[in-house]
Design a protein that fits this description.
The chain is an alpha/beta fold and 399 residues long. The chain folds into two domains: 2-292, TIM Barrel (Alpha-Beta Barrel); 306-388, no CATH class. The chain contains 15 helices and 16 strands. It has helices at 45-50, 60-65, 69-75, 78-81, 94-101, 151-161, 179-206, 225-236, 254-264, 279-287, 297-302, 335-339, 342-350, 354-381, 384-395, and strands at residues 2-8, 15-21, 24-28, 30-33, 56-59, 88-91, 129-131, 136-139, 146-149, 165-167, 214-219, 242-245, 271-273, 292-295, 306-307, 314-315. It has an eight-stranded parallel β-sheet. A three-stranded antiparallel β-sheet has the order 1-2-3. Strands 7-8-9 form a three-stranded antiparallel β-sheet. The longest helix has 28 residues, at 179-206. The chain is globular, with a radius of gyration of 21 Å.
């Protein structure tokens, strides 16, 4: 397994490279669709491959609860289990354990202006997760059963899931936590990182019948420059194969925070920006040195009838599309645009047909995967900044 940098973006941290895994190479930068429960919702794995996706990311928390990591291990790992031909990622489960645990689900309190506290819980929610220095005790969101994740358990689960790239167990705080809590959490995450490395090395020796898995450390620190830089330096000195940039952050500071982190991390190791999937955020992430990205957004918004286009998002369910027999994007090469009209998608959503989600998700995943692939192409040919200006101008209607 290796990571090679092919070209650096002039005067910026962004770069083009190739991340090689036992199940294939990933040309970077690349967008990785999320297959939370070993499936990208509404799509066949073969379809995900056909849209150009280089890899998929599954979630350790959800697969731990159902069907269980032992089942996936017996199948030969998550790629074999879901009939996926390429590389796979699994996150550590930390985000889900802690975000579900405080009731915020997919969003970890992104409003930084709210009053901060050491004990954060969403309104009208019960606490489902309790953090201590050893790990996290939590209740299943499925049946209320009691479970416990430690760094060692997360490594054990992820080794059974068998992904090519796995992440160290970390505490994912919210922007509502106080500065003091963020400092304490960072120390806890650093201690957990060392424990993850030790358990990973032990399991790698015990499981030589499986291919080597790259272990990424996760940089936290919320919106604080000194904490982000400290975390990046400390994790960068440890024996990780790459790094994830995670945690709650103010989207308005995304580029600044990613820059802080990547200025400190080793330049020769890959960096994954967790949970980022909007076009403008992807441009920022690529420019500031992230190599791979994942996000549920393209598939999630597709299921509500929201479609990406070069001129911005389109709500395909509105009545104006009832007799519009043109494709969502005239020049789009995805299967949906090549074969189906806006009128047909409008009909499917209004009729609540399952095919609606499939066709919309094909387009949205293709749109984002292709967009990041185009960023790679334009870095190589020297036109990245021109492409960024043109694309975002059209997307947001800026002349």
């Amino acid at each position: 397994m290796s990571f090679e940098i092919e070209k650096q973006l002039p005067n910026e941290l962004g770069r083009v490279g190739v991340l090689t895994t036992p199940h294939g190479a990933i040309p970077t930068p690349a967008f990785i669709p999320v297959g939370t429960k070993a499936t990208v919702k509404a799509l066949l794995p073969e379809t995900v491959s056909q849209i150009g996706a280089q890899a998929v990311l599954a979630n350790a928390y959800h697969l731990y609860l159902q069907p269980g990591p032992d089942v996936v291990d017996q199948a030969g790992g998550v790629a074999e289990f879901m009939n996926w031909p390429g590389p796979t990622f699994t996150d550590s489960g930390g985000f889900q354990v802690l975000s579900l645990g405080v009731g915020f689900k997919k969003v970890l309190a992104m409003d930084a202006d709210t009053v901060q506290s050491d004990d954060v819980i969403a309104d009208n929610k019960d606490r489902l997760a309790l953090v201590d220095d050893d790990g996290v005790t939590f209740k299943s969101h499925l049946d209320g059963g009691r479970h416990r994740f430690t760094p060692e358990v997360s490594m054990q689960v992820q080794h059974q899931l068998g992904a090519d790239i796995i992440f160290a167990f970390d505490e994912c705080t919210t922007l509502l936590n106080t500065r003091e809590y963020q400092e304490n959490s960072l120390e806890r995450t650093h201690a957990w990182a060392k424990r993850c490395i030790a358990e990973h090395k032990k399991l790698t020796q015990e499981r030589k019948h499986r291919p080597y898995q790259m272990l990424f450390g996760v940089v936290q620190g919320a919106q604080y420059e000194d904490l982000r830089r400290k975390a990046a330096r400390e994790l960068g000195s440890l024996d990780f194969d790459g790094f994830g940039i995670g945690g709650a952050l103010d989207k308005n500071q995304l580029g600044t925070i990613v820059s802080w982190v990547n200025e400190e991390l080793p330049n020769n190791k890959p960096r994954h920006l967790l949970g980022i999937g909007e076009p403008d955020d992807l441009f920022i992430g690529v420019e500031k040195g992230a190599d791979t990205f994942d996000c549920v957004a393209p598939a999630r918004i597709a299921r509500t009838g929201t479609i990406f286009s070069k001129n911005g998002r389109v709500n395909i369910t509105v009545s104006s599309f009832k007799r519009d027999f043109t494709p969502v994007e005239e020049d789009c090469l995805c299967y949906t645009c090549a074969n189906y009209s806006k009128a047909y998608l409008n009909h499917l959503f209004r009729a609540k047909e399952m095919l609606a989600s499939t066709l919309a998700t094909i387009h949205n995943e293709f749109f984002i995967v292709s967009l990041v692939a185009k960023m790679r192409e334009t870095i190589l040919d020297g036109s990245f900044f021109e492409f960024k200006k043109e694309f975002l101008g059209n997307y947001y209607g800026i002349k």
